[in-house]
Every structure is written in structure tokens, then in C-alpha cells.
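Appendix B. Raw example, untouched.
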Amino acid sequence: MGLFSGKRIRTAGMLAGLLVGTALVPAAHAADTEDVTVYGHPIVGAVLSVEGAPAYFANCGGSGEPSYSIQWLRDGEPVETSPPYSPYLYPLEADDIGGRISAIATGSPTNCAGQEVATDASEEIRKEPMREEGFTGRGVFELMARKHDGTLMMYLSGDDAQGWQETRQVGPGWDAFTRIFAAGDFTTDGITDLMATDSSGTLYRFQGTGDGGFYTFRHAVGWGWNSIDKVVGPGDFDGDGLNDLLGSEANGDLYVFPSHPWGGWSPRAKVGQGWDVMDLLIGPGDFDGDGNVDVIAKDKAGGLFLYRGDGTGGWASSRQIGQGWNVLSNVGSAGDFNRDGFSDVHGVNRAGELLMYYGDGSGGWKGVETVGWGWNIFNGLY
């Protein structure tokens, strides 16, 4: 969760208070300095708070007066929060990526003049984790698969070697959904979530538990998604540190759906047209090594195309990277299978073999390998 202990760095006025009388003696503290910590996930979209400060400075304020104030720091330099957030809270934004956040809590001058507690710095702030970080938080390749009877399974790769470690049953009843996709973390807790739409067009988010499962309660996070015929979670497409969705309508218009950290959406923005010639969108993350998320699209003739994101919600360029892909089903991308640091793409051939196409990190391919058999028992891989 991100707990960072604090220490008392100044108690000026204590000696003076002892000399001039009890009226100026600093208030007794109800907690230790180690209890004053920055609390929260070090992920863009999360909101940090200072735990322990209310108890530590409980006796410092006068009538109707706050007992303490907070100064937030990024890499040791003061930063300010802006409305609607309280100065006691710090919302993490794209500018914080790569930095470390700490805080100085200062007691009210009424009873605790000169008393401050500085917290330790947070972990380095990062973007919301993308799909390839997996469902168990291990940061290795993991694949969800839905059987024809609606049972959802999870295939876990090994911790230290290429290949499969074990298979788990996640649960039945997933045939109730017309579309399922894994799009990364959408709750700023650092855990990959799953999304699904039903026949009414309702979009649901299933929050990951971090051990390969999902919380029972599903959250409705959108309506009218039956007008979207293709959807993919590419990661942070617009550069704000939060994961987004891309979806195209039947007329070929392509939209980005920017996310809010609390589960909603900013207004969608059109980012392309003519995408009705495509029948599949894939989110491989950064496929060409430039630091921006990309999209792979398959057209109806089986051609495969790489669309390079520019990191700000648009496109840098596009080019064809394959052909003949219409002989494969369940084509997608779930991360780095062979542990070389580059995203890979999978697909199932007509014999039921699971094929892994290894990316080379620059928008091309290293080769292909069969990594499983009997995968035609599934009608979806995520």
C-alpha cells in the first residue's frame, strides 16, 4: 500500500516552554513519530494521505483551529495540491512519474509551535500497470482462457523460466458476456482487472484480487457499449499515466476512452476513421521500443498492421508487419512469454496449437514457437 515512516525533525520551543511556565509546554502527543507516514499506492491516479498525523498532533490546535498543516514534497521540493482536493491529500498525476513523494506535518503554533514531523519518501511513482504485468502481481506472462461452457481458466507461466507453471479455474458463467478483455489496472491498486460487456451493452469491471482471482461484486462502468464493435486496452494511450480503452464503431470511427482513477471516463475523443476494414485490435503495449503504447490491427484479408502511438493520444506512423493471420483464432497479446523483455503475440491455429510469435522490440518478429496443444477448447483468450 505504500507506508513510509516518519521522524520528528524539530521541537523548537520545548525548552523555552519549560522555562516560562506550563501554559507554553507543548502538548503531549498521542502517537509516535514513526506512526506518521505517507499512505497510498505509488501509482498515478491514486491519492496519498498522511496517516498518524491527526493522532500525533491531536492536542495542538486551539478552538476551531486545525491541529496541524501539511506541506507535500516531490523529490524534496515543495509541491501544492489544487481544489477540489484537500491540502491534506495528494493526488498523483503524470508530472509525479519517476519522483518520490514525502510530506512535512507541522503542528499548530497555538500549542505545538515549531514542532514538525517529516515522513520518509514514497516509492517511485509509476503509471498504472498495464496488462503484461499479469493478474498475480508477479510481472510474468499469464493468460486467461474461456471454455465453450463459460468456465474461465488462468494459465500461469513459471517464475524463472519460459513455459507454464500451473492452471487454475477462475470460475463458471463467463459465457454470459459477449466480450471479455484484460486492459490492465483501472482501480489504481496496482492489480490487473478484467472487463466485459453483456448483450445489453453494459460494460463491467471485475477488480483483480492480486492472486489471480476477482472480487465477487462487479462494477458497471459504462453503458451503450454494444455500439462499439472492436475494443482493446492499449495501456496509457494519451500520456496522463492512466490506462485507457480504444474502441471502434461499425462506421469505422475509432475513439479513445480516457479513464478516471475512480473508475469513470473522460469524454471520448476520435483518433481515427476507416477502421471498419479491421476485424481485430490488439494491445501489445510498447511493441517498437520507443516508450509509447502501440496497437496492432488485423484486417479482414489477414494482414497485420502496427500502429505506433505517439504518447499523447495520436499516431506516429503505421506499417504492415504480417499477412495470413486469418488462419488463426484468439489472436492477442498478454505480455512477454519468452522473458527477453519484448511483448509477444499469440494465436491458435486450426489444429488447436497455441502459437507464440516473439516480438523483437522494434516492431518486428524474432520467430514463432508452438507453446501449447488442445487450445481449440477455448473460445476466447485474454
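End of appendix B.
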